[in-house]
Specification:
The protein has two domains: 122 residues, Rossmann fold, CATH 3.40.50; 96 residues, Winged helix-like DNA-binding domain superfamily/Winged helix DNA-binding domain (Arc Repressor Mutant, subunit A), CATH 1.10.10.10. The protein has eight helices and twelve strands. The strands form three sheets. It has a five-stranded parallel sheet with strand order 2-1-3-4-5, with helices on both faces. Strand 3, helix 3 and strand 4 form a beta-alpha-beta unit. It starts with 8 loop residues before the first strand and ends with a strand. The mean pLDDT is 87.
Length: 232
């Protein structure tokens, strides 16, 4: 029986051959099509030629690192990106998220955890709702095309930015706690990764707010969470 995995192309980028071998074996066994690259420049060439539906990349690599690779890919595509990092690289992980990555997994990682992240990323990049679009305040959200218009102008969001904004848009004028947002968008394993929210909320404000330093739509509720004001 065919599954979503049978049609999903995954590009794995890491300069450690044993990592790429393991990930190729595991992903292929789950039905994914896999290509690998040992550094960012060759990965970018493969990306442009093959157009994968998911990218998994290490951060530290020769010639072009994972942060720059995220930046280059995000300039032309909204494909989900998962970065692999070593424990303690908090600053670099945040930099990767700022550059367009959607998620990260810390080395050494469990295969079950990584596969759960892969499935979630691909699922969220697809269409999951029978409601094609809806309007809320100054926003129109097209779920099928995964596009957002604010005051009539289209704003380009990454997959995780879109997921986060849609969740808030479905709960307007309500205070949503940090924990609720993390679990809704990144899953239960995200409770120890609160930097996700800070980074992605900052990115959303830059794209959606007239004045990101004085947000009207995405308001912080100190020590609790965030609230979406659809009319500003």
């Amino acid at each position: 029986m065919a599954t979503t995995a049978d049609k999903s192309r995954v590009l794995v980028v890491d300069d450690e051959p044993q990592i790429t071998r393991v990930l190729r074996t595991v992903l292929t066994s789950q039905g994914y099509q896999v290509r690998t690259a040992g550094e960012g420049e060759s990965a970018l060439l493969s990306f442009n030629e093959w157009r994968p539906e998911l990218v998994i990349t290490d951060l530290y690599m020769p010639r072009m690192d994972g942060v720059e690779l995220c930046r280059r890919i995000r300039a032309v595509s909204s494909v989900p990106i998962i970065v692999l990092s070593v424990k303690g690289e908090e600053r670099t992980k945040v930099e990767a998220l700022d550059s367009g990555a959607d998620d990260y997994v810390t080395k050494p990682f469990g295969i079950d955890e990584l596969m759960a992240r892969v499935r979630a990323a691909l699922r969220r990049a697809g269409v999951e709702s029978d409601l094609a679009s809806f309007d809320v305040g100054d926003f129109r959200i097209d779920l099928e095309a995964r596009r957002v218009h604010v005051r009539g102008s289209e704003v380009r969001l990454t997959p995780k930015e879109f997921d986060l904004f849609v969740y808030m848009a479905r709960h307007p004028n309500r205070v949503i706690t940090h924990r609720t947002l993390l679990e809704a968008v990144w899953g239960e394993a995200s409770q120890e990764q609160p930097e996700y929210l800070r980074v992605f909320m900052g990115q959303l404000r830059k794209k959606l707010e007239p004045d990101p330093s004085h947000p009207r739509y995405l308001v912080t509720e100190p020590w609790v969470g965030y609230r979406f004001n659809p009319n500003g």
